Amino acid sequence: MAKLRPYYEESQSAYDISDDFFALFLDPTWVYTCAYFERDDMTLEEAQLAKVDLALDKLNLEPG
Questions:
Q1: Is residue 5 a part of any domain in this protein?
Q2: Does residue 32 lie within any of the structural domains?
Q3: What molecular function does GO assign, one term (predicted)?
């Protein structure tokens, strides 16, 4: 079984990057995955929110 410690330190460096760097290419929601473009005219921010809405709809959440 591989030791996790070296990999932890390598992956941790990705979280030590400043927010200013990520602000260069992320939209205001700061979502760091693919987007869901329902229409050709959607902005990145709209597509990120559409992805979140799609995921929530698939959960079939109900009150309570």
A1: no
A2: yes
A3: methyltransferase activity
Q: Residue 1: what residue type? A: M
How far is it, in rounded angstroms, from Cα 2 to Cα 46?
41
Nearest partner of 38 among 55, 50, 21, 29, judged by Cα:
50
Non-local (6+) Cβ contacts of 44 within 8 A are 27, 35
Nearest Cα to 27, choosing from 14, 37, 15? 37
CA distance 33 to 44: 11
- The number of domains in the chain is 1
User: According to the 3-state scheme, what is the secondary structure of 5-33?
Assistant: HHHHHHHHHHHCCCHHHHHCCCCCCCCCC
Tens of pLDDT, residues 6-34: 677 777 777 788 889 888 988 888 888 88
